[in-house]
User: Fold Histidinol-phosphate aminotransferase from Sedimentitalea nanhaiensis.
Amino acid sequence: MSLIAPQPGIMDIALYQGGAAHVDGVANVIKLSSNENPLGPSPKAVEAVRNSAAGIHRYPNTDHAPLRAAIGEMTGLNPEQIICGAGSDEIISFLCQAYAGPGDEVLHTEHGFAMYRISALAAGATPVEVRERDRITDVDALLAGCTERTKLVFVANPNNPTGTMICAAEIARLADGLPQQALLVLDGAYAEFVDGYDGGAALIAERDNVVMTRTFSKLYGLGGLRVGWGYGPQPIIDVLNRVRGPFNLSTTALLAAEAAIRDTDYVEHCRAQNSRWRAWLAKALAELGVPSDTSCANFILARFASQTEAEACDAYLQTQGLIVRRVAGYNLPNALRITVGDEIACRRVAAAVAAFKGGTA
Ligand SMILES: *Cc1c(COP(=O)(O)O)cnc(C)c1O
Assistant:
């Protein structure tokens, strides 16, 4: 028997399942499985990528100062308290690596994002799943789930794949009630889709036990470049910078992200399109007998009568060139998560679900 063995917990990690992108034998496919921006990246980000090409023999800068300054300018946050990562996934990983290890517990909600569990296990810590209430984060359940071993509590607000969110007062109550050794991580991957929501920035200004993560992969349309960031109390950001690799973001990614966040007209346009077609799609599906909770993000969690119906609808949508996401792995076997596409995509989804329902009714 080999004595070469990985650290405990590593082999408990189930590989992350990304959203599918192809259906064999079907043309004109629309991918609505990964909550990407249906309108694509800002043209200014694309130009920044092109302009970066001639300089890629140079190492990128290590402190990300220009991007952090741009984020600071656009959000009003202090750039010193920002850390950039290869997607917010990397920030989640830094947090687990720095704050949780063997014997420690990492809380996440019942239908929470898969990377919390994966990163906790990779750090040797124990992920603990806490129930939600009707697909909404339950602060009382999270507080009850804490022990003296709890080191991190991950809450996505809005949550993926439910699309629901809880209010600032509830988040504050959670932060206030946590045991002293526990850090609350507010995952704001979809924060930009919510009007007037700061992702938890005001809370962070008042407390030393809250961090937030953000991403360029969703509203900003840069999922393929891998850029995310975290914001928190200075001492915590200083810790995370010690586990961060010095060249974790490429020059190309840094320049594209800076261009994307500065292109406020384009960002506004994308946000408005999302609100409009999200409402349209939710209503169209509801009228077909497929309800969803009011979504605060760029996807809808469509609920079906049973797992069998959800899977049959998914299979039918695939034949129509529409790829959505099954979420049985998120304890939601009766549901499908559908990214809000552009007008054409939303109309195609509604027509296909109508045809499916017509065929099975
Ligand atoms: C998409 C997503 C992320 C991560 O995205 P990155 O591409 O790694 O920035 C993080 N959290 C949630 C809840 C997400 O849905």
Q: What stands out?
A: Residues 87-89, 113, 156, 160, 187, 189, 215, 217-218, 223, 228 surround pyridoxal-5'-phosphate (CB under 6 Å). Residues 130 and 359 are 38 Å apart (CA to CA).
